[in-house]
Amino acid sequence: MNKIYLAGIGFRPLDNGAKKVVLNSRIILASNRLFEVFKGYDEFEKVRDRIVVINNINEMVGFISSNLPSRTITLLASGDPLFFGIGRKLIAEFGKDRVEIFPDLSSIQVAFSRIKELWDDALFISLHGGATAAKSRGMGAVIEDIPELLEKHPKIAILTDKENNPAAIARGVLDAFPIAHLVSLSMHVCERLGYPDEKITEGTVEDIAEMSFSAPNVVIIQRAGCGTQIIDTHHPESETCAFDSDSPFGLRDDEIQHEKGMITKDEIRAVTIHKLRLPQKGIFWDIGAGSGAISIEAARLSPRLSVFAIERDEAQIAHIRENSTRFNLPNVEIIQGEAPEAVKGLPPP
């Protein structure tokens, strides 16, 4: 039974297994881009007359179906073929028994190594293939999903394409979040990884929205306070990240800075937040905010909500400021004063 061999390329020389199948295959399939990449490999000149260039995935599958009964075929793939790659489609079409895979590094793995950040706590999505989930290789993600995903995950790594490019992604985030929240976000764009003109750009969401980038590229969006950390394995609870996705609601009283006894108790906070049924995006006034317990819970639960904590007492304002900083809540704005004068000029809730 002839097999399809998937050889990942882009970052490292072929290993012995991949080299053997490439040299022995009667047909080697590649897209135009990977044909150009493969020119830099030692094996290229030995097999160049056996390389068939096909760019359309469906045409490539059809070609394999027609030729596989009589020939062994190797397909050159980008990075790791099973990481948002063509491996998924070939296994679905031909079955696991007919497909052998020799992966290279994934572009996302390389991107995280370039910016020197951990990646085991990141969410990976692909926007490659089109503006809708149906077109994006069935991965079920679109740009409009990213703001909600950022509320749940400290880092998101995104495979892009020409339409779903870094600037378009940044504009989608800008449209969804209040300006105050954006200061906690940073973006990296890793362009043309593995090429001689590889480039890494770090910037704010506003910066990236106004820039253009070369393809292919990887985007990494990260919340402040969620970078590389050294974890105490004896006290894993010491690992913290703003907007902890595992517990966005339900702080203990001792986690909130306050004057002794002067705090809205946790059970009252729970009922209050439940009754408010806060939207994900909008305006919230907390009049007489005290230590800011309600404001903090609301801001953590709905990061796109603009929270105005209105308080007249300077000592309490200091607590609100400390709590906002501790939990990295740029969507909390402190208004010192007494209602109704203090709320004049504020956007209506």
Please tell me the CATH architecture of the largest domain by its name.
2-Layer Sandwich
Question: Which CATH class of the largest domain is shown?
Answer: Alpha Beta
- Topology order in helix (H) and strand (E) letters: EHEHHEHEHEHEHEHHEEHEHEHEHE
Total count of helical runs of at least 4 residues: 13
Radius of gyration: 26 Å
CATH homologous superfamily placement of the largest domain: Tetrapyrrole methylase, C-terminal domain
CATH topology term of the largest domain: Methyltransferase, Cobalt-precorrin-4 Transmethylase, Domain 2
Q: Which stretches are low in confidence, meaning pLDDT under 50 for 5 or more residues running?
A: 131-138, 228-240, 242-246
* Overall shape: elongated
Our count of domains comes out at 3
How far is the first residue's CA from the last residue's CA?
Answer: 68 Å
| Average pLDDT metric | 87
Judged by helices, strands and strand pairing, the structural class is alpha/beta
Largest sheet: 5 strands, parallel
How many runs of DSSP E, i.e. beta strands? 13
Q: Assign a percent range to the helix content.
A: 25-40%
% residues in beta strands: 15-25%
Biggest sheet strand order reads 3-2-4-1-5
